[in-house]
Amino acid sequence: MPLPTYLQIEPVGQCNLRCQMCPIQYRTDGPPHGPLAFMEFETFVRILDEFAGLRELHLQGLGEPMMHPRFFDMVRFAVGRGIRVTTNTNATLITDKRAEQCVTSGLECLHASLDGARAETFERIRVRANFAKVVKNLERFRDVRGRMGSKRPALHIVVVAMRQNLAEFADLVRLASNLGAEEVFVQQLCHDFGESSLPGKYQEMRQFVDDQTLQTEDTGRIEYSFAEARRAAEETGIKLRLPRVRALEHAPGTPGRERCSWPWTGAYISYQGYMMPCCMVSTPDRVNFGNVTGRSIADVWNSGDFNAFRAQLESGQ
Length: 317
Known about the structure:
Layout: E1 6-9, H1 41-50, E2 56-59, H2 71-80, E3 84-89, H3 96-104, E4 109-113, H4 119-125, H5 131-147, E5 154-160, H6 169-178, E6 183-187, H7 203-212, H8 219-236, E7 239-241, H9 256-259, H10 262-265, E8 266-269, E9 275-276, H11 297-301, H12 304-315
Helix pairs in contact: 3-5, 6-8
């Protein structure tokens, strides 16, 4: 099977935050536990060399991408090959210089995480972050981009939906509009950490998801919050993407690719070089199909382990 045209790469496996919904808080990648958890630039180049038909690259993972000293070199290198490049950020490290580099590097879209419209909520969820500083940094990005006369990179605000921030969605839409964002994307807590093989260190994550998921929240409360958010989006003219109130139930026998096309259409590679099913797996010690630093990417993509995973998904197991 040919390599996909869409790829996600995790440039950094360490982070300056300890967000409640992120398993990085239970890992020991990077200081003070070990060496810097950065993908080698040479590894990045080799990966792109092997993805000859790549059209879109999203730089994101558990760590904050802008911690990488060569992050913007990665962006420029990929853009120079005609690849559309986007990234995620927690927006804690945006300076005037980095805001300028976002524009000059050719970055297409900056997805900034903002999980609360109030400092109390935001800082409870995004441990170690300062709400006022993050908002100021995003204002800085908006202003620098404006001074440079550019509309790119576009700014999209990403919100992880939880019980504790559900009431703030409308205010988040208004805040995003003030920050010059084009879109607000609200997503569910996507990984439930429910597998029986879950490593013990992530057991607390399973409890957190159980406590905060909207999948078991009162539908009336969800629908009211969503309606208020839609009203705010109409008032401000911003695009709003909301998740389903309840998970989509697939009919028995629905082909695997119709339930999730990722294992056929997209690839995800961690900073160490592990190929995983997708970013929602979060960490390669849950599942991975091999390391591309010692094998060809095509070999891992078409490996027995990966094909067995696809077959299991196709079977509905």
